[in-house]
Design a protein that fits this description.
The chain is of the alpha/beta class. The protein is built from eight helices and 14 strands. The protein has one domain: Purple Acid Phosphatase, chain A, domain 2. Helix content is 27%, strand content 26%. The strands form three sheets. Strands 1-14-2-3-4-5 form a six-stranded mixed beta sheet. Strands 6-7-8-9-13-12 form a six-stranded mixed beta sheet, with helices on one face. A hairpin with a 2-residue loop joins β12 and β13. α7 crosses α8. Keywords: Hydrolase, Metal-binding.
C-alpha cells in the first residue's frame, strides 16, 4: 500500500512540475544565436546580423511587446526578417497586437516581411475576411515594412550580393492530415531564380526543404511548426500542424552540404496553446564568410 501511495505521489509531483514548466514556457522567450558560415559570403567585410521572427500569433511579452522589442534592440541587427504568422488569421480576430509590434521594427533596422499561412489565407479569402489583411499590410508599409510576396529583393552588402526571396506556396500545402508534394519546379513557378552571391529564402513551411535546396537556396528561414509543440530530448519536435509526427526539421539549424535551414520554434502559439521542453524564441543569425572563421 505504501508503495502505491509513493508512486501516486511521485506521479502527481511530476505532473505538477510538467504543468508549471508548460506555463513558464508560455510566458517567456529565449534568444537563440546561430552562426552561418559560407564561402559565398566571402564578399562581406564583416559579419552581418539578422534577427529572424516568426509565428508571434498576436502574443505580447509585456505591454506593447516591450520585452521582445528590447531584446531586438540589444541584438543590434543589420536586418530584421519576418517569417509570417505574426497575427491570427481567424474571422473577427484583431490584428492590433501584431500591428503595434511590427510597426516599431523599422526604427531598429530594415524589415522584410514574408507571409505565413495565416496572412496568406486572409489575403486569398476576402469573402471570409474582407479587406482585413490589406489594411494590415497597408498600415505596416506606411511604417516602412517591406512585404515580399513571391518576390525578391537584392541587397548589396559590402562586396556581396544577397538576395532575399519570400515564397508563398498554395494554401493546399498546409492541409491537415495530408502529405503534400512540392518540387523545385513548384518553387520556380512562384519565384524565378536570379543571379546573386547568396540566396536567402523565407519559406514558412520547412517540410519542403528538399525542394528549396534544389531551387538553389543557400539559407532557408522557416517557422510554422511551433517547434513541434512538445520536444523530446534526442528526437526533436513531436508533431506538425498537419498532424504529421516527428518532422525532420522542426526547431533547429541544420546544414546539409553547403545549404542551411533554420527553423524557428516561434514566439506564440495557436489552436494548441501548449509548449513543453520547447521555449519560444527570437533568433539572431550571424552571417560570415569562410575567410572570417
Amino acid at each position: 500500500m505504501k508503495a502505491v501511495i509513493l508512486v501516486v505521489f511521485v506521479l502527481t509531483v511530476a505532473a505538477v512540475l510538467c504543468l508549471l514548466e508548460a506555463y513558464r514556457e508560455q510566458q517567456y522567450f529565449k534568444v537563440t544565436e546561430d552562426v552561418v558560415v559560407s564561402r559565398r559570403l566571402n564578399g562581406l567585410k564583416k559579419e552581418k546580423k539578422i534577427v529572424f521572427l516568426s509565428d508571434l500569433h498576436n502574443k505580447e511579452y509585456g505591454a506593447g511587446n516591450e520585452r521582445l522589442l528590447d531584446a531586438i534592440c540589444k541584438a543590434r541587427p543589420d536586418l530584421i526578417l519576418i517569417g509570417g504568422d505574426m497575427l491570427v488569421g481567424k474571422k473577427g480576430c484583431s490584428f492590433a497586437p501584431a500591428l503595434e509590434f511590427v510597426s516599431k521594427l523599422p526604427a531598429i533596422a530594415p524589415v522584410y516581411y514574408a507571409c505565413g499561412n495565416h496572412e496568406q489565407r486572409m489575403k486569398r479569402k476576402p469573402e471570409v475576411y474582407g479587406e482585413v489583411y490589406q489594411e494590415y499590410q497597408k498600415q505596416l508599409e506606411e511604417c516602412g515594412v517591406h512585404f515580399l510576396e513571391n518576390s525578391s529583393v537584392l541587397l548589396k552588402e559590402d562586396d556581396c550580393r544577397i538576395r532575399i526571396s519570400a515564397l508563398e506556396l498554395p494554401l493546399a500545402t498546409y492541409t491537415k492530415f495530408k502529405k503534400y508534394r512540392v518540387t523545385e519546379q513548384d518553387v520556380t513557378a512562384c519565384i524565378e531564380k536570379e543571379a546573386a552571391d547568396y540566396e536567402i529564402l523565407l519559406a514558412h513551411n520547412p517540410v519542403y526543404f528538399d525542394a528549396y535546396k534544389k531551387w538553389g537556396a543557400d539559407l532557408v528561414l522557416s517557422g510554422h511548426l511551433h517547434g513541434g509543440i512538445i520536444r523530446l530530448p534526442g528526437i526533436g519536435g513531436l508533431i506538425t500542424p498537419q498532424a504529421i509526427p516527428f518532422p525532420k526539421y522542426s526547431g533547429e539549424m541544420t546544414t546539409e552540404g553547403e545549404q542551411t535551414i533554420i527553423v524557428s520554434r516561434g514566439l506564440g502559439t495557436h489552436t494548441i496553446n501548449l509548449r513543453f521542453l520547447n521555449e519560444a524564441e527570437m533568433i539572431v543569425i550571424h552571417l560570415r564568410g569562410e575567410k572570417d572563421s
